[in-house]
């Protein structure tokens, strides 16, 4: 199973992705987690990404694409994967399609869109910022990230709809309830 998780920051992609990992036994590849790890480690990539992330901007395509291609080439991703945070625009989706072909892997099976209102996302991210002390989750930065998502990433819904791979799931309710909806549409 090759799954792309779509949804605005704070829609629950990370949480549901981890549940899908346990369910399907395939790795979750999160560009956000990989970038935050690079920032925490103080790597050259991390230093480049930190200023961009702190401002609520998206990290450069070539950095993200490099991280994803390296990860998809690893043995555990050959039987399937869950992508969280990539692709983030139609151009990246086209790169992903070509990348999978080049790696000798089948194309994406499903794009799962977690639909959550902007106000619910703001509420969730402000709560997370308070609990985790995340500097990138201030209200003005959150609103900017949502607007960037709506402008750049939201068109992916049309891209995957055109391939008959898009499934939209309401991303509100209990975690297990949302997970059951996702598994239901993946069958």
UniProtKB/TrEMBL annotation:
GO terms for cellular component: cytoplasm. Keywords: ATP-binding, Cytoplasm, Kinase, Nucleotide biosynthesis, Nucleotide-binding, Transferase. One of its GO terms (biological process) is AMP salvage. ATP binds at residues 10-15, 128, 173. Its EC number is 2.7.4.3. SUPFAM superfamilies: P-loop containing nucleoside triphosphate hydrolases (SSF52540). InterPro entries: Adenyl_kin_sub (IPR006259), Adenylat/UMP-CMP_kin (IPR000850), Adenylat_kinase_CS (IPR033690), P-loop_NTPase (IPR027417). It comes from the Bacteria. Its main location: cytoplasm. AMP binds at residues 31, 36, 57-59, 85-88, 92, 134, 145. Residues 30-59 are annotated as: NMP. It holds the Pfam family ADK. Pathway: Purine metabolism; AMP biosynthesis via salvage pathway; AMP from ADP: step 1/1. It catalyses: AMP + ATP = 2 ADP. One of its GO terms (molecular function) is ATP binding. Transmembrane segments: none annotated. It is found in: Cytoplasm. Consists of three domains, a large central CORE domain and two small peripheral domains, NMPbind and LID, which undergo movements during catalysis. The LID domain closes over the site of phosphoryl transfer upon ATP binding. Assembling and dissambling the active center during each catalytic cycle provides an effective means to prevent ATP hydrolysis. Monomer. Catalyzes the reversible transfer of the terminal phosphate group between ATP and AMP. Plays an important role in cellular energy homeostasis and in adenine nucleotide metabolism. This is Adenylate kinase.
């Amino acid at each position: 199973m090759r799954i792309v998780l779509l949804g605005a920051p704070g829609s629950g992609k990370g949480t549901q992705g981890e549940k899908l990992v346990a369910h399907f036994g395939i790795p979750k590849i999160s560009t956000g987690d990989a970038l935050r790890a690079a920032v925490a480690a103080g790597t050259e990539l991390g230093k480049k990404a930190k200023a961009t992330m702190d401002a609520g901007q998206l990290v450069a395509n070539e950095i993200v694409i490099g991280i994803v291609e390296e990860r998809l080439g690893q043995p555990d991703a050959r039987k399937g994967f869950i992508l969280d945070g990539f692709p983030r625009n139609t151009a990246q989706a086209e790169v992903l399609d070509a990348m999978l072909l080049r790696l000798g892997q089948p194309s994406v099976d499903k794009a799962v869109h977690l639909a959550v209102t902007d106000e619910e996302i703001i509420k969730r991210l402000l709560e997370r910022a308070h609990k985790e002390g995340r500097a990138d989750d201030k209200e003005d930065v959150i609103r900017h990230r949502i607007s960037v998502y709506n402008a750049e990433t939201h068109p992916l819904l049309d891209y995957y709809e055109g391939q008959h791979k898009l499934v939209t799931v309401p991303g509100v309710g209990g975690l297990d309830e949302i997970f059951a909806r996702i598994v239901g549409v993946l069958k």
